[in-house]
Amino acid sequence: MPRLGIFSDTHIGRNIPRVVGDARRKAFRHAFHQAIDIFLREKVDYVIHGGDLFEKRSMTPEDAVFVKEELYRLAKNIPHIKIIAVRGNHDGSPHSSSLDYVTHPLAEYFIVLGDKTLKEEKENYVDDNLCITAMGYHPYAKTKFKEISSIIKESWEGGAPRILLLHNYIDGVHDIPPSAPDHSIINPKEIEKLKPDIVIAGHQHEPIGVRKTGGISYILPGSTEAVDLAEEGPFGVHILELDGHKIDSYRFVGIEPLHEIRNEVLSPDKPMPLEWFAEKCLNRLEELASGLSRDAIVRMQVKGVAVTSSIFPELDIQDKVDEIRRKYPRLIHVEIIESLKPIIGDKGETKPGGGIRIREIFEELGGEALELIDEVSLTLDERASEKTGILRESDREEFVERWVKIFLQKVREE
User: Fold this and answer.
1) Among candidate residues 254, 289, 308, the one where a domain is terminated
2) Same domain, 146 and 294
3) Residues 166, 298: one domain?
4) Are residues 238 and 276 in the same domain?
């Protein structure tokens, strides 16, 4: 009876918020190390990663070495193990993937699936216990999945259980955020046509576990650490045992995070003076800090209606927050999110959503253009000048050439 260890969205190298970047980077490594410990303890036969192994396609050498050593530690202690991963959106593109830094011809235990499938090339991992195929992340997943479904169908070989590995949202399966564009969401009816036994899908950070729909078991493992401070968790890994084509047992095993993350909300049900918000916020923060038994990050939302003469009310308490942090060293970071409205009414207020999203402008150019937008965004995060916010000319040249090719192709088609 094969035993599978499943995890996803480990985001190795993430250092946001940057003011405590080193601490956050350590937290994601800590979670990954704990995940490997769990898989060793459970003596799994396979490990499946649902994408976003790294935070960025160009990680530090230390991040790449760390992941290689952890995966080798797993393979050294369980010699027959196979570790199978799919590329997520944070891992880069099919042309430039961070997973290329981890793969090696001699490391036969680590297998990346999904990018050849995007090129309509047959690709799978198959043995007597299971058959796995995948589709790497694609910004235009709705149509792309339909285009390559015949290749996925050809990839099912033998009589072993069929597992499909994805890193895109699936309609009716994931808890999809409102901001997710429709073209990036896979239609579950297209998945049902392929008749997989199990679908493992990353991309969502909150763990859901097993969801069944259309006769298919969907496993949404979530992340191993809070990628955004607002995420509540718990976070961890999943242990799955198969009995033929069915799930015999399924368990979630939580990971103890390196740092405690506390999310607090201060929101009175009636208008209050601005001073009241400031005082309550500081009192609650000190109360939390005084009871800490380990290093912690506090994220506090302050929202409501403030009685004030200012059109844009602000608490202006940063100096006092810093005093509390100095008093309680275990409080390593405080994030105050202010969403206060003045009692003076609608004057001076602006309506959100008036901007134009760049993705909407370039949708007609197709998936290649949307992939390029993602690559530009990642490169800006990594290499943009702190003063100007733009890339150096040498970094821009490649993108300019690729944009020109896309536009010329569109002109020729029309």
Assistant:
1) 254
2) no
3) no
4) no
347 belongs to a structural domain: no
Cα distance between residue 139 and residue 299, in whole Å: 31
Q: Mark whether 277 and 154 lie in a shared domain.
A: no
Element of type H or E holding 133: strand 131-135
What pLDDT does residue 360 have?
59
Closest of 188, 198, 197 to residue 219, by C-alpha: 198
Gap between the Cα atoms of 278 and 290, Å rounded:
18
Q: Where are the alpha helices (DSSP H) in 43-186?
A: 61-77, 115-118, 141-155
* Backbone phi and psi for residue 304, each to the nearest 5 degrees, phi listed first: 145, -165
Does 239 lie in the same domain as 156? yes
Q: What token pair was written down for 378?
A: 């990642």
By the 8 A CB rule, do 196 and 162 touch? yes
Residue among 59, 61, 69, 84 nearest 33 (CA): 69
Q: Smallest Cα–Cα separation from 145: which of 123, 168, 162?
A: 168
Give the CATH number for residue 233: 3.60.21.10
| C-beta separation of 186 from 166 below 8 A | yes
Domain count, the chain: 3
Tokens 């579950």 map to which residue?
188
H/E stretch holding 239 = strand 236-243
Tell me which DSSP letter residue 109 carries. T
Instruction: Give the 3-state secondary structure of residue 187.
Output: coil
| Segments forming the whole domain that contains residue 406 | 358-413
Do 151 and 76 share a domain, yes or no? yes
pLDDT band of 5, cuts 50, 70, 90: very high
- Is residue 235 within 8 A of residue 207, CB to CB? The reply is yes
The answer, yes or no, to whether residue 349 has pLDDT greater than 70, is no
Peptide bond between residue 177 and the one before it cis (omega within 30 degrees of 0): no
Separation of first and last alpha carbons in the chain: 56
pTM of structure? 0.82
Task: Out of 222, 254, 286, pick the residue that ends a domain.
Answer: 254
Q: Mean per-residue pLDDT for 23-41? A: 98
Beta bridge partners of 306: 272, 342
Provide the strand spans (E) within 370-412: none
In degrees and rounded to multiples of 5, residue 313 shows phi and psi of: -70, 135
What are the φ/ψ torsions at residue 406 (nearest 5 degrees)?
-65, -45
What one-letter code names the amino acid at 413? Answer: E
